[in-house]
Amino acid sequence: MTTGLYSPDDFHAAANEFPEPFRLLIRESVGSTNDEIRLLAQAGAADGLILLAEQQTAGRGRRGAAWFSPAGESLAFSILVRPTASKALWPRLALAAGVAVAEAVETFGLQAGIKWPNDVWIRQRKAAGILVEAGPDFVVVGIGLNVNTTSFPPEVAEIATSLKNETSQSFSRAAVLGAILSKFARRRQEIDEDFGSLIAAVQQRCVLTGYRVKLSTSTGEQIGWVEGISSAGELLLRTEAGLDRLIQADEIRII
Ligand code: BTN
User: Which residues line ligand 1 (CB under 6 A)?
Assistant: First the structure.
């Protein structure tokens, strides 16, 4: 059985109900949807374009990692955003996207957590990753969500999961995409209008709070206890030297 309103891959039916201004472009196979939509943005595409690929041959994760998304099983798409907010606030779109994906997953009855800044976890494993990249007058929000994937390459098999692995049910990818966009339509507004609500949604789902972690930043490796997320969206890390407020970190591991 497939859970969701639409037949599993009926993206066009789902797209009819996307909130404004989202509209969908589907490609069978691309290198990376982030790279592809950047070209469309540079050619003048308007805010709200979604580029979804059935298959990515060079999907990218953060820190130059490859992103695994087997054809037809997962969601791999990018959203073109032309923010009205000032440039300084654009990084907040990464938080907005993480919250939107977590909330969408929750509408299907699962509990989702956020591993700061925006990995979406289900029961201690990563189900979704988000890669946000800015251009001169646009932002690309790339989202990869493991929907019906059941087997992962050895390098991520221990840490990855999917909606199907967690429930033994298949999900309509079209319905899941629709749910993410409904949530993102609201959360993207909050980067300047109501950042308090956005941060509260991150804080509420933060899977690192209360845990001891090891992480690397531009200034080196750090170990400490995560006290939570600040009202400005920083990770609050208690180390031997005191309380650190991190705006960025590379790999974060719970130890
Ligand atoms: C991460 O957790 O490292 C981020 C993964 C982001 C993957 C998505 S899939 C759609 C979009 N296109 C890409 O090449 N990457 C993002």
Answer: 32-34, 56, 59-62, 65, 67, 69, 76-78, 119, 129-131, 142-144
